[in-house]
Amino acid sequence: MPRRRPQPVADLLLMLALIALQALAGWWTLLVLGLHTWAEPPRSAAEQAAAPVDWTPYRVLGGFALAALLVAVLAGRRRLWITATVHGLLVAALAVGALAAHASDVRDRERLRPHPCPRVTSRASAAATTASAADPADRDNGGVEIESFRALLTDEGQALLAELRGFREADELALATRLRRSHPAELVRAAFEQARLRQRAAAKFGADAEAMYFTPDGVEQATRRSVAEWRAGRFAALGVRRLADLCCGIGGDAIALARAGVSVLAVDRSELTCAVAGANAAALGLADRIEVRCADVADVDPAGFDAVFTDPARRTARGRVFDPEAYSPPLSWAIEAARRTPYGALKVAPGIPHALVPDGAEAEWVSDRGEVKEAVLWFGTGAADPYRATLLPGDHTLTGTGTPATAGPVGRYLYEPDGAVIRAGLVSDVAGQVRGRLIDPMIAYVTSDELVATPYAHAYEIGEALPYNVKRLKALLRERGAGTVVIKKRGMAVTPEELRRQLRPSGPHEVTVILSRTDHGPLMMLGQPVGAAT
User: Fold this and answer.
1) Is the bond preceding residue 329 a cis peptide, omega within 30 degrees?
2) Helices 470-480 and 496-503: crossing angle, nearest 10°?
3) 271: region left, alpha or beta (phi > 0 left; psi from -120 to 50 alpha)
4) Are 83 and 19 in contact (CB under 8 A)?
5) CB-based contact 252:222 (threshold 8 Å)
6) Is 45 in contact with 112 (CB distance < 8 Å)?
7) Structure confidence by residue, pLDDT tens digits, 113-160
8) Partners of 415 in beta bridges
9) pTM for the full model?
């Protein structure tokens, strides 16, 4: 049997191809690692610690090692011992390098993972805030850590924030790449995070947001400036001059109170939150009126204060808390604290039942531009009525007892009360203002034969009021040439989006469809908004 002839040319060509593949893989590895470093969006240490491992560089490295191993085998077959040895060593080096890189990544993640801090009490300043109670908020502040935040208060950090003012998302990659060449990567990440938070916070704080500091949770949970100013005005009108702001957060309420002439002790157990609140007080020139103390609110003695304002935490790592006794601090503790000073206010969830309003307290629901923002229990105000609805802007406030109103047939006008009015149970008071009635005893729609100006409800002129029927509604909309249909509903298991798909509106006109449950069955009303006087 003839012996097979070796094929040196084929082996040599294959080996050269694999070497070329190695070169390509090496270039690609450097490119991927480079992009991984420079194109990565600015992230804080906490985000880096929580982010999943990116296996792309390791996969490329594995392909590189496989190519080197094949070259070593072919070189050994051709007795090219030097080439085989070099590529064998290369395979070993790549394996060791991959293991070392993975071990380094694990160590970095462990180092970047936030750890709890001990509790002490101190005064916060813009430059630094000393340690406080170990708080889960400090271990998970959406990417903002105390060390990174303090770095932003240095001259270098301030210069970075100034350069990022008003930056656009489209320019972020190029800007981050340039800044990392002259500043520490962690500081650049922290600056970008703070710049993004300031842009988000502008909706709540207006122009002040450009000078303030935030955490992601702080932006989400802070009191809107208009609401805080309304509350601060009420405290000032009561003669309050010294107030303890318990669970102060990033200082939104403390700032409004200080601007109203009230001296504030702002207390929170989160070290980071206290640092942010202190920096905000300094940035807005209010440090002489706001003292920030990092402590458990239970350790604060309210003696000597004119008032206490408490904003308990109503969220945990699992989400929103609905049981008032699961607030931090619990509702019962906060009520007791509010009663230990001449005046007190306690922020609660807007959905608090009237049955939970304590005797002698005034419950106020506040809406801003038609959206209910919060509910507050007031103590010591001597209010004649237990319920109040306040609408901002405009400082419209309505008080009453929440007595039920009578129901009757639909008139020419329908009034949709503001959410704060509904929460406060003052729909009947609005019905009295417009000389009207409810369309159903349990539904918050008021109807009247008169158009009466009121800031507490939006008015609609009703053209049709018929029993609810989708086919009939579709025909009516077609007759009116309605291509835009605004659907409102109360007490009916109807999804506006699904109903709109069934109706298939077409035409140049707009119609408002109001659906409601009544004692006589479901009702559909077609009309047009006529606005509300303010």
Assistant:
1) yes
2) 60
3) alpha
4) no
5) yes
6) yes
7) 433 333 323 333 333 333 333 344 443 444 458 899 999 999 999 999
8) 446, 459
9) 0.71
